Structures are given as C-alpha cells and as structure tokens.
Amino acid sequence: MDRAEIVHKNFLSRVASGDLPPGDPPVGPLSREAAVAIFRAACLSRALDRKSRAMQRAGQGYYTIGSSGHEGMAAVAAALRPDDIAFLHYRDAAFQIARAGQLPGQTPAWDMALSFACSTEDPISGGRHKVLGSKALMIPPQTSTIASHLPKAVGAAYGLGLARRRPPEHRLLPADGIVMCSFGDASANHSTAQGAFNTAAWTAFQSVPLPLLFVCEDNGIGISVKTPKGWIAANFAHRPGLRYMACDGLDIYDTYRAAT
Ligand SMILES: Cc1ncc(C[n+]2csc(CCOP(=O)(O)OP(=O)(O)O)c2C)c(N)n1
Ligand SMILES: [Mg+2]
User: Fold this and answer.
1) Does any ligand 1 atom lie closer than 6 A to the CB of residue 237?
2) For the segment 176-194, what is each residue's pLDDT rounded down to a tens digit?
3) Taking Cα atoms as reference points, which of 154, 180, 157 lies closest to residue 76?
4) Is a pLDDT exceeding 80 seen at residue 228?
5) Quick one: which ligand is closest to 146's CA?
6) Nearest atom in ligand 1 to 90's CA
7) Ligand 1 atom closest to residue 219's alpha carbon, by position in its atom list
8) Pocket of ligand 1 contains residue 184 by CB under 6 Å
C-alpha cells in the first residue's frame, strides 16, 4: 500500500468509529445542511484526487494536481453566490464541486474526469490541460503560471465597480456580486501577485469600489520552499485599503464564518 492508500484507510475507519480530532464543538453561522453539503464536496474532491492518480497509473490520465488539505475551500463557495466570479487556485476542486451543488444540472465529477483524461469533451479546456473551470459556474479557467490570475481578478472587480456607476448595455456579472480570487502562500510572493495587491489597495485606498475577496491558502510550502511562519499575516494584516481576516482552513465552520 502506498501512503495515500494508508491515509485513505485511516480516514474511513476513523470517521466510521467517530474517532475524530479533539476540539470544541463547531460554532458559527454555518447550518447543518450547509455543513453536510460542504463535507460531501470535500469527499468528492478527495475521491477525485485518488481517482486521478489511479487513472495516471493506468495510462488513462496525465497531469494530476491534488486538492488534499484544501477541501475547506468548499466552505468559501458556500459563503458566496454561484454568480460571484471566481479566479481559482489550482487546488480548489472542492470549491468548484461545492459551487456545482448550488446550480441544478451540474456534473462536476464527470467534467473533472474528462479533464484528467485530456478528453476533447472536457468542457473547459477541450483536453488541452488538466484545469479547473466552468462557464456555468462563473469560474474562468486559468493557466498554470502561478499568480497570473490575480491581475485578472483585480480587473474584473474594478469592472464590477465601474458597472455599478455606469451600467453597461450587456451585463455578465450581477451588479451586487463580488469577485473571489484564491492563491497559494508561495504564489503571494510573486511579483505579479504583489502588483495585483498593490493595484487593489491603491484603488480601494481612494474609495474607488473594488468588490474583491482574496483568499490565500497557506499550506506553509511552495513545492520545496517553506513559507516563514507568520509571513502571510505579517505581510497582509496592515495594508491600506485591504481588510485582513484569518481562519483555520481545516475548520469549515471557521472558514465559512470568515468568508461570510
Ligand atoms: C510563474 C511560475 N513560476 C513557477 C511555477 C512553478 N510552480 C508551480 S506550483 C509552484 C508553487 C506554488 O506554491 P503555492 O502558491 O504555495 O501553492 P501550493 O501548491 O502550495 O498550493 C511553483 C513555483 C509556475 N507554475 N509558474
Ligand atoms: Mg503553498
């Protein structure tokens, strides 16, 4: 058995026996029904991680990107509306799955399996790349160039604000929506990301509307390079024009509270 299989077996046996990490009972505004929907999205995300590896071993799939540890992004999806356009980090399968549950007729498992297989029927990339995204779910596909989606998100948010002041003839995004943009802790150091934060803060500082939620998914590492402990908070907690909130991404109640 490989490590992933051991983790999986442990997960199944511990959930079945109720042997869960100690801690206080969950608190916050998350309803029981929404918590179950988030848990289901997390389970499907994990199952797809495992399936993609199996497909790769069998020669049926190619590039894989795990979402494990990032399943809490389902709670961010639950706090948003499905028409809040989302520029996603590549580990956010759980976000897309949770959002798919907010619209009828969605088939996220099938769509992602097509992406793993580089099928020409993959609805978001036509088989060019394993990538998250969905037109119906307002999730534009991104490139694998880290941080490249942050300036796009800032632009989209600026456009939303502008459209409130000067209603356009054609409207793709609702006037009262927001933009969500997620990224990794190491990606936050990229000059492209820094430019986006600065532009966003510079804009908001002048009270120009910029309805944008940045979500940094801090797993403490960028491939083999460790992020210094406390770096993200130290870097973002006191920037003009930017309101900083932190949460435990492994706790869906805390994540939902912060995202809401
Ligand atoms: C511009 C660019 N430089 C380097 C890479 C190679 N690369 C892929 S993922 C990654 C690290 C990203 O770490 P982080 O943002 O913390 O995300 P995580 O994978 O930890 O979720 C790097 C450097 C890339 N894809 N794009
Ligand atoms: Mg990281």
Assistant:
1) no
2) 999 999 999 999 999 999 9
3) 180
4) yes
5) 1
6) 21
7) 20
8) yes
Q: How far is CA 20 from CA 10, 25, 56, 167, 257, in A?
A: 11, 12, 31, 51, 22
**Strand pairing of 179-184 and 212-217?**
parallel
Q: Is 226 in the pocket of ligand 1 (CB under 6 A)?
A: no
Beta bridge partners of 110: none
Give distance in angstroms: CA of 147 to centre of ligand 1: 8
With beta carbons less than 8 A apart as the criterion, state whether 14 and 20 touch: yes
Q: How far apart are CA 211 and CA 84, in angstroms?
A: 10
Q: How confident is the model at residue 21, as a pLDDT?
A: 83
Burial 158-178 (b: 16+ CB within 10 A, else e): bebbebeeeeeeeeebeeebb
Whose C-alpha lies nearest to ligand 1, atom 20? 222
Nearest atom of ligand 1 to the alpha carbon of 70 = 21
Q: In the predicted model, is pLDDT for residue 260 greater than 80?
A: yes
What are the beta bridge partners of residue 214?
181
DSSP labels for 71-129?
TTHHHHHHHS-TTS-EE--TT-HHHHHHHHTTSTT--HHHHHHHHHTT-TT-TTTTTSS
What does pLDDT average to over the chain? 95
Does the CB atom of residue 219 touch ligand 1 within 6 A?
Answer: yes
> Which pLDDT score, from 0 to 100, does residue 42 have?
97
Q: Show Cβ contacts of residue 215 under 8 Å, excluding neighbours closer than 6 positions.
A: 73, 76, 89, 180, 181, 182, 183, 259
Q: How far is the CA of 91 from the centre of ligand 2 (A)?
A: 10
**Could you give the CA distance from residue 256 to residue 63 in angstroms, rounded to a whole number?**
31
- Asked whether the beta carbons of 242 and 201 are under 8 A apart, the reply is yes
The three-class DSSP label of residue 175 is coil
Mean pLDDT of 193-201: 98
